Amino acid sequence: MMDQHRERRQHQRIFFSGRDNVIVSFAWKERPTVSVTASVMDISGGGVGVTLKKEAAPEMEKGDILILKDIRNLDLFPDPDLAMEIRWVFNHKAMAHIALGCEFIAPSAAMQAQIETLMQEWTVRTRGH
Fold first, then answer.
1. By the 8 A CB rule, do 52 and 35 touch?
2. Residue 110 DSSP SS3
3. E-strand spans in 56-118?
4. How far, in Å, CA of 66 to CA of 61, rounded?
5. Cross-strand bridge partners of residue 89
6. pLDDT tens-digit profile of 12-60?
7. 14 forms bridges with which residues in the sheet?
8. What's the pLDDT tens digit per position in 116-126?
9. 121 — phi, psi (to 5°)?
Protein backbone atom coordinates (compact mmCIF):
# COMPACT_ATOMS: atom_id res chain seq x y z
CA MET A 1 0.00 0.00 0.00
CA MET A 2 2.82 2.41 0.80
CA ASP A 3 4.35 2.02 -2.68
CA GLN A 4 1.26 3.61 -4.25
CA HIS A 5 2.08 6.93 -2.57
CA ARG A 6 5.82 6.89 -3.20
CA GLU A 7 7.29 9.94 -4.95
CA ARG A 8 7.77 9.13 -8.65
CA ARG A 9 9.36 12.38 -9.78
CA GLN A 10 12.90 12.05 -11.06
CA HIS A 11 13.78 15.76 -11.03
CA GLN A 12 13.78 18.51 -8.43
CA ARG A 13 11.52 21.41 -9.33
CA ILE A 14 11.30 25.13 -8.78
CA PHE A 15 7.89 26.49 -7.77
CA PHE A 16 6.75 29.96 -8.78
CA SER A 17 4.17 32.30 -7.32
CA GLY A 18 1.93 34.62 -9.30
CA ARG A 19 4.27 37.48 -8.35
CA ASP A 20 7.08 35.79 -10.28
CA ASN A 21 4.96 36.16 -13.43
CA VAL A 22 6.72 33.34 -15.31
CA ILE A 23 4.82 32.79 -18.56
CA VAL A 24 5.11 30.20 -21.34
CA SER A 25 3.58 30.12 -24.77
CA PHE A 26 3.04 26.91 -26.69
CA ALA A 27 1.20 25.49 -29.68
CA TRP A 28 -0.18 22.06 -30.46
CA LYS A 29 2.01 19.94 -32.73
CA GLU A 30 -1.05 18.75 -34.67
CA ARG A 31 -2.70 22.20 -34.62
CA PRO A 32 0.19 24.69 -35.00
CA THR A 33 -2.13 27.65 -35.55
CA VAL A 34 -3.60 27.13 -32.04
CA SER A 35 -1.34 28.81 -29.50
CA VAL A 36 -1.81 29.45 -25.81
CA THR A 37 -0.13 31.50 -23.10
CA ALA A 38 -0.06 30.04 -19.59
CA SER A 39 1.35 30.81 -16.14
CA VAL A 40 4.14 28.54 -14.96
CA MET A 41 3.56 26.85 -11.58
CA ASP A 42 6.80 24.86 -11.60
CA ILE A 43 9.64 23.72 -13.81
CA SER A 44 12.20 20.93 -13.62
CA GLY A 45 14.62 19.14 -15.88
CA GLY A 46 11.77 16.85 -16.83
CA GLY A 47 9.00 19.29 -17.62
CA VAL A 48 6.75 22.14 -16.64
CA GLY A 49 3.48 22.62 -14.77
CA VAL A 50 1.22 25.41 -16.01
CA THR A 51 -2.20 26.94 -15.45
CA LEU A 52 -4.42 28.80 -17.89
CA LYS A 53 -7.87 30.32 -17.79
CA LYS A 54 -10.58 27.99 -19.03
CA GLU A 55 -11.97 30.52 -21.50
CA ALA A 56 -8.51 30.76 -23.12
CA ALA A 57 -8.02 26.99 -23.29
CA PRO A 58 -8.69 25.01 -26.44
CA GLU A 59 -9.68 21.38 -26.09
CA MET A 60 -6.78 19.37 -24.66
CA GLU A 61 -6.15 15.98 -23.17
CA LYS A 62 -3.47 13.76 -21.73
CA GLY A 63 -1.11 12.60 -24.48
CA ASP A 64 -1.40 15.75 -26.64
CA ILE A 65 1.97 16.95 -27.94
CA LEU A 66 2.73 20.67 -27.48
CA ILE A 67 5.54 22.77 -28.88
CA LEU A 68 7.13 25.17 -26.38
CA LYS A 69 7.62 28.52 -28.10
CA ASP A 70 8.71 30.94 -25.39
CA ILE A 71 9.38 31.37 -21.67
CA ARG A 72 9.13 34.91 -20.29
CA ASN A 73 10.43 36.48 -17.07
CA LEU A 74 12.88 33.65 -16.45
CA ASP A 75 16.52 33.30 -17.48
CA LEU A 76 15.90 30.22 -19.56
CA PHE A 77 16.18 29.85 -23.30
CA PRO A 78 14.38 26.68 -24.39
CA ASP A 79 15.40 24.56 -27.32
CA PRO A 80 13.71 25.86 -30.48
CA ASP A 81 10.35 24.15 -30.86
CA LEU A 82 10.86 21.87 -27.86
CA ALA A 83 8.15 19.20 -27.81
CA MET A 84 6.27 18.42 -24.60
CA GLU A 85 3.67 15.77 -23.85
CA ILE A 86 0.69 16.56 -21.64
CA ARG A 87 1.01 13.99 -18.84
CA TRP A 88 -2.00 15.14 -16.79
CA VAL A 89 -4.86 17.65 -16.95
CA PHE A 90 -6.74 19.02 -13.93
CA ASN A 91 -10.00 20.62 -15.05
CA HIS A 92 -12.54 20.83 -12.23
CA LYS A 93 -15.88 22.48 -12.95
CA ALA A 94 -15.62 24.63 -9.80
CA MET A 95 -12.25 26.12 -10.87
CA ALA A 96 -11.67 29.03 -13.25
CA HIS A 97 -8.33 27.62 -14.43
CA ILE A 98 -7.03 24.41 -15.95
CA ALA A 99 -3.73 22.94 -14.78
CA LEU A 100 -1.45 20.86 -17.01
CA GLY A 101 1.62 18.79 -16.28
CA CYS A 102 3.86 18.56 -19.35
CA GLU A 103 6.94 16.39 -19.84
CA PHE A 104 9.75 17.64 -22.08
CA ILE A 105 10.46 15.29 -24.99
CA ALA A 106 14.20 14.94 -25.64
CA PRO A 107 15.45 18.30 -24.31
CA SER A 108 19.04 19.06 -25.28
CA ALA A 109 21.90 18.69 -22.81
CA ALA A 110 22.30 22.49 -23.02
CA MET A 111 18.72 23.05 -21.91
CA GLN A 112 19.10 20.53 -19.10
CA ALA A 113 22.22 22.39 -17.95
CA GLN A 114 20.35 25.72 -18.09
CA ILE A 115 17.59 24.33 -15.88
CA GLU A 116 20.11 22.90 -13.41
CA THR A 117 21.89 26.28 -13.18
CA LEU A 118 18.55 28.06 -12.84
CA MET A 119 17.57 25.74 -9.99
CA GLN A 120 20.80 26.47 -8.12
CA GLU A 121 20.49 30.24 -8.64
CA TRP A 122 16.78 30.28 -7.74
CA THR A 123 17.45 28.35 -4.53
CA VAL A 124 20.13 30.84 -3.50
CA ARG A 125 17.92 33.79 -4.47
CA THR A 126 14.84 32.57 -2.59
CA ARG A 127 16.81 31.61 0.52
CA GLY A 128 18.24 35.12 0.64
CA HIS A 129 14.77 36.70 1.07
1. no
2. helix
3. 65-72, 82-90, 97-104
4. 11
5. 100
6. 778 898 899 999 999 999 888 888 999 999 998 899 999 999 988 888 8
7. 43
8. 888 888 765 65
9. -65, -40
